[in-house]
Each structure stands twice: as structure tokens, then as C-alpha cells.
Amino acid sequence: MPEPKEVKAATNDVAIPDQAGPVPVAVVEGATVVEAGPAPGKPRSLWTDAWHDLRRKPSFVISALIILVLLVMAAFPGLFTSASPRAGDLSNFYLQEPQLTHFFSPEWLGYNQQGQSVYARMIYGTRASIIIGISVTAIVFVFGSLVGMLAGYFGGVLDTLLSRLTDIFMGIPFLLGTMVILVSFDTRTEWTVTFALAFLGWTTIARVMRGSVISVKQSDYVAAARSLGAGTWRILLRHILPNAIAPVIVVATIALGGYITSEAVLSYLGIGLSEPAISWGGDINRAQDQIRVAEHILLYPSILLSITILSFLMLGDAVRDALDPKLR
Amino acid sequence: MGRYVVRRLLQMIPVFIGSTFIIFMMMYALPGDPVRALWGERAPDEAQMAAMRESLGLDDPILVQYWNYLTGLLQGDFGTQIASRREVIEVISDALPATLRLTALAFLITVVVGVGMGLVAGLRAGRFSDRGILFVTLLLISVPVFVLGQIFQTYLGVRWGWVTPTVQDSENWGQLFLPAIVLASLSFAYVARLTRTSIVENRRADYMRTAKAKGLTQRRAVGVHLLRNSMIPVVTFLGVDLGNLMAGAIVTEGIFNIHGIGGAVYRALNSREGSTVVGIVSFIILVYLVVTLLVDLLYAVLDPRIRYA
After folding, report:
1. Interface test with A, best of B15, B156, B261 (most A CBs within 10 A)
2. Where are the membrane-spanning stretches (chain B) (predicted)?
3. Structural domains of chain A, count
4. Taking the CB of the first residue and of the last residue of chain A, which one, N or C, has fewer CB atoms within 10 A?
5. Does the beta-carbon distance from A310 to B265 stay under 8 Å?
6. CB atoms within 10 A of CB A296
7. Are B192 and B133 spatial neighbours (Cβ–Cβ below 8 Å)?
8. How far is B288 from chain A (nearest CA, A)?
9. What is the pLDDT of residue A3?
10. Is residue A107 domain-shared with residue A138, that is, in the same domain?
11. Which domain holds residue A22?
12. What is the CATH number of the domain that holds A107?
């Protein structure tokens, strides 16, 4: 299979579509080319440019604000509700309808079949989703980048071995694979789920990183650094990594929303977080038996879950637009 | 071309062995004992349990077990379920047709609706219909499949009675339509967005100007030149996605009461029927590998500049 053509002239003003090879879906081609130039004064890097763009983008600002609120919700759920998510009062509140005018009070979004406040459970359920989403992304980012960097930079036998290993893990169906891992744990905490998702999730990032490193390592500045006597690790960390990481950041940001979805799906199937833990997926799973009688206990957690995923996706989209010079 | 295919087929062997080995290890090496599970809450008869483990080969070292499993697999022997004594191949072939029908319909919807929406949005980039399609697809991506399934089932099926809420007969394509849309929702949203990006990138390309200059109709220029050149990222995604659809059917099948692979694997997982789980997962891995090869061959069809030696 021919390698995708990696180096791309981002400065061409006529965009000649270049499809000389299979384009991996998530790879943002050309995003690694930094248009710094030898201009005197303060050179603007890809990152300064990107930040400049991002601040002016409504979708970035909105999603970043929502994510900020979600982070605060995850860290200090007590700020948002006084009710306890576990205290249930069956005799008074069984499946009570929402009181939509009582903003932020425990009865705002109604009660579930155990007489627990739906609103409080939504607030307290944020932590699991956020912790899992962020920690899976962090692990996958570090491990996948490392594998991809080693494979791309050293090439040869190491590349073959690591690429085959990536292929093997990529062949395992993600959802089924995580289910197989998780079903063997009796109690599943945030960390168990994180482990399962990260164990099978690092492959895309490794591939993107590998392609990106291959395209960067032929650059003149890498040759210059080498001829000045820089060591392998210095070249990798100071010269290649900063220039190859942009597409990886894009993929990782978009993947974060996907991991939150996966956690919700697993909890929904009853193989995610186990019982005392509060998670949106688990609550939605228990709500589906009541959907014909009381749809509010399914609807509101679903809306919050969707808003969370949507914000991370919008953030990822905005970051991609900002880091892809082709779209400038 | 022929040599390329042979080389790729040979490369598949270690990947297949590796993937099935990992699934096998996870299924057997981690805690949970299917033989002990047969007794449920009752105290097991130690001697009988030991005899069963012996006859099932569960006391062998894990590598020996894997070797026996793999050689069996190559001879078409998927093993036997421990609790029900059914042949795994029989369990799979009972469940497979429903899942295949559902997946095929979902795949068809993904291609038709996804490419169609992407084409409309891409050709009208920046206009109202483009923004509308982008918004709808973003919404579809962010609403998890199980929520969408529940909502569709409750409203379209139960409240308004437009469709049958659950599938009573999985050979009835009409009943499978709603579950297939739900299963495909995520994929066609992605396909629409990919197609749109690709079309926007290519529609101002030189060959499009040439096509217009030489007097081709808009329809032909778009249908033959633009679409064909924009399909490579979409085809890549579709190839990976087919396996995901089959695995993702586990949620959709549960909601809409379809007796397919998803339910079989779910039950097998909970009762630690390793051979069933590994068998089904191996099948999905095989589908994935074959489809990725087909996708790579399709690149050359879409773009004649790509040659395989």
C-alpha cells in the first residue's frame, strides 16, 4: 500500500487537491507545516495563530464555557444542588413530575422511581463522565503518541512491529472489546472503565502520530539539528514533537466526546460503572423501564449527556479549524 | 494487483491471530468461572466440577487452550457452549441473519443518506441548507444511540403509532427500518460531514473548471468527476464503520427486540461462555479485515493514479 503523501505545500494559493494516496479519515494533512518564515520581529507560530483564531470563534467560546461549567459541576457538585443524589423518599416523591418553574431546586426536573431528585443525580453524575473522558484521553494521548513517534521516527523493524501491534488492537471491535474486559470485574470504578477504554483506544492516535512524524522528520530543521550534534531524544522532543503534535491534538479533542459516549453506552448496558456510582448512562438505563409512564427521568439526563458530548465535539471542530492551515 | 492482494492476505494472518489471541486471553485469563457458574447459588460438587473442567480442557495452560481453539477454528469448529451444550456455530448462525439484515440496511442508509446530505451541504456551502445539515449531523453525533432509540421507539412507535415499536419478525424489512435508522444515525452523520468537507475542498479544483469548460452539464460534472474524487475519505470511513455497525447493533438489538449477534454475545459475556464470545468477535474481526482490504482496492478504482504493485 502506498504511503499517503505526507508533505503538503500549505502555501500554495491554488488548492490542488492531492489524493495520491488513501487519506486516513482523521489525519489533518498539512497541519504540521508551520508558516513561521524568517520574518524579523516576533514570529507567529501555528499556536499563536490558532489561539488568535479560536478566541474569535463563537462555537469555541460557547463550548469552552459549557465545558468550564461541567468541570466545576464535576469538582463541586454541592454548588449546584443542596439535595443528596442518593436520598430517596418513595412515599412522597415516587416518579413525581418536574416542576419546571422551580429552577435549580431538587424538584426542578422531577423525581425518579426511587424518589430521588433527577436534577441532583444529573449534577452528581457529571463527575464520572468527565473523569473518564479526560483520563482516557490523557492516557491514550501519551501512550499513542509515544508508540506513533517511535514507529515513525525509527522506522525499520521497530516500525513494522509497532504498526502490526497497532493493527492488531485496531482489529478488535472497540465496544465489544471493552465489554469483555469490564465484565470480568465485579466492582467497576471510574478507573476500571478508564483502563478498558484506554487499553483499546490508543490506536488511532498512534497512527496519526506516526504519519505526522514521518512527514516532519524529513524537514531541514531536523537535519540541521542532527548536524549540530543534537541527540536522538533532543531531536524527538524539541524538534519533531512540537511540529508533529497538531493533528494528534485535534484527534484527541474529538475523541474525548467519543469516550464519554462509550462510558455512557457501557453503563447503559450494565457493564459500565457499578451500582453505588452515579452515572448518566446507568440512570438512563434504569429510566427506560419507566419511559411509558414518566419520560422525564430519561429525558433530562439524556439532554445533559448530549450537551456534554456536543460541547466536546464543537471544541474539537473549532480546534481542528484553527490548526488546519488549509482552511485559512 | 494480484501480488498486492496476496501480500495483504498474508499480512492479515498475524493480525487476525493477534486480535483473537487478545480477546481469548481477556476472556479466559480474567476472573469468572463458567463451570462454577453452572451451579449458580448452590454449592458445587467438587469432583464433578473438576471432571468438567478436565473434559473442557480448562485446566490446560492458556497458550495450549488458545492453540486448541485456533486449530479448531481453522477446521470450522467454533467449540461448544458449556451451559447449553449447543454448538457455537449453531448459536452464531441462528443469530447472524437478523444482524446481517439490520447491518446491511443500516449500511445502505448510511451511504445513501450520508452521501446525499453531504453532497447537498457541500455544494451549498455556507448557505442555509448547509448550516442546517451541519447542525442536524452534529446533533445526531452527540445524542447517544440508546437515547435516540428510546425516543424514536416511544414517540414514533408507542405514542403516535406510526411504526411497530419492536421488531416481531426480523425478516420483515419494513419493521427493521426504524432500528436501522437508529443504528445508522451516527454513521450517516459522520459520512455527511466527511462528504461535505471533501466536496468543499474539491469543487473549485482545476478538473471541475475543465469539466465545465468543455461543456459538461452540472449534473455530470458533479456526479462523475466531483463525487468520484471526493469519495476516498468517505470510503475509508465506511470500511472501518461496517465492523462498528455490527458491534454497535448490540444496543439497537436490545432496544428493538431483535434476536441477533448482539443479544447472543451479551448473554455469552454474562455467563462467561468464552468460546461464543471469542467466536463472534473473531467473526467481526474477520469482516473488518476483509472490508479494509476491499476498501484499499477500491481506492485504485476511485483514483486511477493509485496503483498497487
Report:
1. B15
2. 12-30, 102-121, 133-156, 176-194, 277-302
3. 2
4. C
5. no
6. 20
7. yes
8. 7
9. 42
10. yes
11. 1-41
12. 1.10.3720.10
A151 lies in the same domain as A16: no
Q: Which residues in chain A are closer than 8 Å to B240, comparing Cβ atoms?
A: 25
pLDDT of residue A23: 40
Q: What is the mean pLDDT of residues B82-110?
A: 86
Same domain, A128 and A10: no
Which member of A2, A17, A176 has the closest CB to residue B247? A176
What is the ipTM for the molecules in this complex? 0.84
pLDDT exceeds cutoff 60 at B265:
yes
**What is the grid cell recorded at A267?**
453503563
Q: Same domain for A61 and A152?
A: yes
Q: Which residues of B touch A17 (CB under 8 A)?
A: 201-202, 205, 229
Does A193 lie in the same domain as A95?
yes
Residue of chain A with shortest Cα separation from B137? A310
Q: What is the pLDDT of residues A267-292, one digit of tens each?
A: 888 888 887 888 888 888 888 887 77
Same domain, A191 and A220: yes
Query: Quick one: pLDDT at residue B29?
Result: 67
Contact B144 A171 (CB under 8 A): no
Asked whether the whole model's pTM tops 0.80, one would answer yes
* Residue-wise pLDDT tens digits, B102-128: 999 999 999 999 999 999 998 888 888
Distance from CA of A24 to the nearest CA of B (A): 7
**Does residue A94 sit in the same domain as residue A227?**
yes
Q: CB pairs below 8 Å between A and B: how many?
A: 164
Give tens-digit pLDDT for B135-153. 899 888 888 888 888 888 8
- Name the minimum distance, in Å, from the CA of B83 to any CA of chain A: 18
Q: What is the pLDDT of residue B154?
A: 84
Are residues A80 and A215 located together in one domain of the fold? yes
Q: What is the pLDDT of residues A174-216, one digit of tens each?
A: 888 898 888 878 788 889 899 999 999 999 999 999 999 998 8
Quote the pLDDT of residue A32: 45
